[in-house]
What we know:
Blueprint lengths: L2 H23 L4 H20 L2 H46 L2
Organism: Sporofaciens musculi
Protein name: Phage protein
Amino acid sequence: MEDKDFLELIISERMGMHHDTFKKEYPLTEKQAAEAEKADQAHELLFQQLSAEQRAMMELCEDVTNSEATRENEYYYRAGFRDGVSLDRLIKQIREDNK
């Protein structure tokens, strides 16, 4: 496995772990759960009224939007990871310089 593939695997695993932790530590309130259910029902009702071609277009739009949101979240996660590594290196360098 190449370094890039290994890094991808680690980041994917860590993001999944953080997602699970987030859902446990910050569960939806009853109001949020009710709103999500209402939105899901409205979405389903809307999709039932669309033709197959219109549904396909809406699904494409949703897929692109979700993909972009995922890309953005991954970017911020990676940026935080890089910042953490850089900060660790900086602290180690400062400690080494102060010996």
